[in-house]
Design a protein that fits this description.
elongated, two-stranded antiparallel sheet, 7 strands, Rossmann fold, single chain, five-stranded parallel β-sheet, alpha/beta, 202 residues, 2 domains
């Protein structure tokens, strides 16, 4: 059986804003921090969609943040936002042992990749990935789903797709995937869904 796994809030938890907040001086007013971060993250989808390169995005973001933050500190803060979601890691390890086909399907960017693949061992179990910044489209746009179908010869009604965002799941369902909207706080619900899907087979 083939599985499409989202990364953020599924395989890895993350906290973007608190990591970036620590770049700014501790005496910076909260409202100023909020305003700068909001402005910087306005272009995150554009960056993750591959429409802006790191060479263009990073200097722009540093200018928005101000306070003479170095390129190296920005990269470190941008990357070090993740923590493993251990319950899902155990699922992935079992699926891999059982011989299932595992593919990543994620909105992400060229700062996080390949860094996360080099620093989190769970990714060794995935044969490939459909990554937004490489495809030039982001979920929930149809284009990235169709890319996954075409490149990996997916049969949607035989493919299990796990994501945390309702809009992404909605597109997946419309295109025929067998989907689960994942919540870390209710991993048990995922286990129930997975057991039912495995019993159903392909």
């Amino acid at each position: 059986m083939t599985f499409l796994f989202d990364i953020g809030k599924v395989l890895l938890d993350f906290d973007f804003e608190n990591s970036l907040r620590r770049l700014l001086p501790s005496d910076t007013p909260d409202q100023e921090i909020d305003d700068r971060l909001a402005r910087m993250l306005e272009r995150k989808d554009e960056f993750e969609g591959g429409h802006v390169s790191p060479d263009d995005y990073i200097p722009w973001a540093l200018n928005v943040l101000g306070h003479d933050i170095t390129h190296e500190k920005f990269i470190s803060a941008w990357q070090n936002i993740f923590t493993p979601n251990q319950p899902m890691w155990r699922v992935v390890e079992q699926l891999h042992r059982d011989g299932h086909r595992l593919i990543l399907f994620s909105n992400t960017n060229a700062i996080h990749c390949p860094w996360i693949f080099e620093n989190f061992e769970i990714f060794r179990h995935f044969e490939s990935g459909v990554l937004s910044f490489e495809v030039g489209a982001i979920k929930p746009e149809d284009k990235i789903y169709q890319h996954a179908i075409d490149v990996h010869d997916l049969v949607p009604h035989e493919t299990l797709y796990i994501d945390d965002l309702p809009a992404n799941i909605e597109t997946g369902q419309r295109l025929g995937f067998r989907t689960h909207q994942y919540e870390q706080s209710d991993h048990a619900a995922f286990d129930v869904w997975l057991s039912a899907e495995m019993a159903r087979g392909s």
